[in-house]
Amino acid sequence: MKAIKILWLSRHSLTNESIEDLKRIYGEMLEIFPYTNSVLSSEEIIEIGKDCDILAVVLPPAILKDLVDSRKNTKPIIRAKANRVETGWMIISPTGEEEKEFKFVHAGWEQILKFEIITKEL
Fold it and tell me: Are 27 and 4 in contact (CB under 8 A)?
């Protein structure tokens, strides 16, 4: 059985929880290829991920929109979801104020099937 190759494009590392969740979705045979540098275009991402089966990304909307375009890319595009939860600790903010500390906790993965922005004039 061939391992599924996943490009992880983010400046952050995958957590153990997010990796285990990928295994739940795609099976135990995974190869994850992290890429932490900035990218400027969907074409650059497609080239970086050319040997991968899945593109797991954290991207600005303009690049994500291009990457979802099936005329440019046919590979599945996924992204991690996270919940912001209190740690139970207090911290001192950069302004010197005491405030609650929060952390991000993995909340699943989602596949991006379509990208649409609907606006109205203000």
Answer: yes
CATH for 41: 3.40.50
Could you write out the DSSP letters of every residue in 5-17?
EEEEESSSPPPHH
Domain housing 101: 4-111
Give 52-88 pLDDT, tens digit per residue: 999 999 999 999 999 999 999 999 999 999 999 999 9
Query: In the chain, how many domains are there?
Result: 1
Tokens (6 digits) for 86: 């209190």
What is the CB-side half-sphere exposure of residue 11 using CA atoms within 13 A?
5
Is residue 24 in a domain? yes
Identify whether 43 is part of a domain.
Answer: yes
Evaluate the CA torsion angle 53, 79, 35, 3 in order and state its sign: negative
Decide the pairing of beta strands 54-57 and 30-35: unpaired
* 26 falls within a domain: yes
* pTM confidence score: 0.85
Question: What backbone phi and psi angles, to 5 degrees, belong to 113?
Answer: -100, -30
What is the Cα–Cα distance from 7 to 33, expressed in whole angstroms? Answer: 5
